[in-house]
Structure formats: structure tokens, C-alpha cells
Amino acid sequence: MPNYLSKVHGFDIKQMGGAVFIMFFSGFVGEMVGGWIADKWKAAGASQSRVLRTLFGVASIIATVSIYSVAQIKDPVAVVVLLSVTLFFLRWCGLFWCIPSILGTRDRVGFLGGTMNLGGNVAGIGVPIVVGLIVQATGSYFLALMLFAAAGAGLFICSTLLIDYSRKLPV
User: Fold this and answer.
1) How does pLDDT run across 110-130, given as a tens digit for each residue?
2) Helix, strand, coil percent content, the chain, rounded in steps of 5
């Protein structure tokens, strides 16, 4: 995002530092709020599956709409606000780290957690390369932002339709 803010919206290093701080602080708050809501809702008697499907579904929809909107908006302040909203709700999905203990049996929790972490690391390596190639090939960040919007749609589908939070994975 710093490159995007600099090249598309003309941010200097000081503005980028402030904007990135605001965005990541929003993500920190989102992670705490998401966990708090999940705990309170589950304690009030909601099923684990209902809590996780709803929270992940809401977060993925809002994050997807926000990142899609970034590509449409030209005002730099609005872009930072939208990116902050995106990170708030993406970090809200930090609840995904509870899934290995929910879905894994005692002898598979470590493997499931490790596999999940591996997937995140592979994406962390691959996404910047793909985004760089997209921006280099098109001269624009539009398709890169659409890639993130598509990933948000994928997050919605996976977290609300494909994962059964109510049963342990077979050994």
C-alpha cells in the first residue's frame, strides 16, 4: 500500500507513515473487537458455527466492498479511510487462528496450524510478486485492487459455505 499511496495519490514519506500507522492500528482494533464479539456472542449461547460464519461473512463482505471502493475513489483521505476499514475487518478475521484448535483433533492441531501458517506465508511471498507483475503489465493498480476484491469474495465463500465449524476433522 505505501507504493500505491505514493504513486497514485501523491503521498510523501511522512504522509505514508501516518496513513500506514492509521491503517494498521485499525487492523489491531479490528482484531480485538472481532475476538471480543465472538467471545461475548458464544457466551450468550450462540453456536460456534453461527458465530464464526456470521463474523467471517460480515467481515469479508465489508472488506471486499471497501477494497473495491478504493479503486473507484480519488480522494486520498477517503482512500486511507477505506483501507483502514478494510484492514479493520481483515484483522477481525484474525479469528481464523482459532480454527486449528476448533477443527483439529489433539494429535492434528499442530499440523493444521502449521499448514495454515504455510499457506499464509506462501501467499505473503506470492501476492507481492503477482501485484508487481499486474502493475508493471498494466501501468495501473486497478486490477491489483480487483485481485484483492476477488480474494475477499473467496474469503466469503470459504468461511461461510465451505468450512464446517461444528465438527472435528477426521484423523
Assistant:
1) 998 999 999 999 999 999 999
2) 80, 0, 20
